[in-house]
């Protein structure tokens, strides 16, 4: 359950996370690896989300734009962010700079050993560097102002499984 909860902290503060999309991310990340089909994984994912809601670790916010959504309470999100920093030597390496209003990608050299990166809800227009991220599996770049991604940006990211570019210009 810990890895499912920690995955949610990749989203910005007060962000409404569509349940279906969250389960799809988990499925692509092979966190729901006992299933071969997304429909089976969706049922298991719904059960996990329900368990997290029952434990008051996620809040059910209902339907937004036609999608059933959840979000993390600010205190729970702060706790999960602390956990990701405190235990960054574990297999769940995270990097997040969400909603910080940054205008360019942060120090991509720091991304080298990270598995999951989120820079959602910023003002990034151009990704010009070429990060070396051999372990990167999840990259959330959504809700920025991305106009240009350099040709070499994905060159040294050999196995991305989740890439979210939604909500850009």
UniProtKB/TrEMBL annotation:
Name the UniProt key words of this record, in alphabetical order: Leucine-rich repeat, Plant defense, Repeat
Q: Which residues form the signal peptide?
A: none
Under the heading Pfam families, the entry gives: LRR_8, WHD_DRP
Q: Which PANTHER family match?
A: NB-ARC DOMAIN-CONTAINING PROTEIN (PTHR33463:SF220), NB-ARC DOMAIN-CONTAINING PROTEIN-RELATED (PTHR33463)
Name by which UniProt lists this protein: Disease resistance protein winged helix domain-containing protein
Any idea where the Disease resistance protein winged helix domain is? 12-79
Please indicate which superkingdom the organism of origin belongs to: Eukaryota
